[in-house]
Please model this.
Amino acid sequence: MIAKILVSNSPDKIKAEIERAVLLHLGGVTQNHPDVLYFTADSKLGVGEAKEIREFFSIKPYSAKGRVIVLEDAGNLTPEAQNALLKTLEEPPEEAILLLGAVGTDNFLPTILSRCEIVQLKSDTDTPTNRYTDIQNLLDSDIAERFEYIEKLKDQKKKEELLYALTGYFHQTLRSHTSSGNTDFLNELLRAEEQAKANVNLRGILEYLMLVMPTKKG
Model:
């Protein structure tokens, strides 16, 4: 089981990371998926909900490799609910994912913190939105122009910024206009992020993405 507390003062940043993680786990569209239990930020999170979480995880996945539970704002968990969750964390189901969004860790019991991975999400300034203008231009460019753009990104951080900006851009595109091409490419981006974390050559990753990235017409 993967249990993560996603920490950011930006609710949008938390939701974007949750969407990315769930999409990567399911390998496709996440809306109304039977293997996902989603608690929005305004949800009550008491002992009853903790029991619901435990029961949901006890059921065999319908089609995914493991079930997923999301709490957009786990800071709403009462101490009693956190204690009720401990058994789930101590006896985790295989291939399951528990994602807990939070603005900080102060409201969590030490026993919860010790059983979860704490992920400090990067600020939005790390993936500047002016990259989106570059991406829009790349969608209109041919392969040679796309490769030339990658060639100019000498700094490793700039390459990373482009990769994460691509993911953010195509997340937004899917929210407003779903197409099979964009969905397939978003899955490519999610795999690319995992490869980047494994220290695969980032320039090679970006050049491959330029080859398979849709055009505006596509």
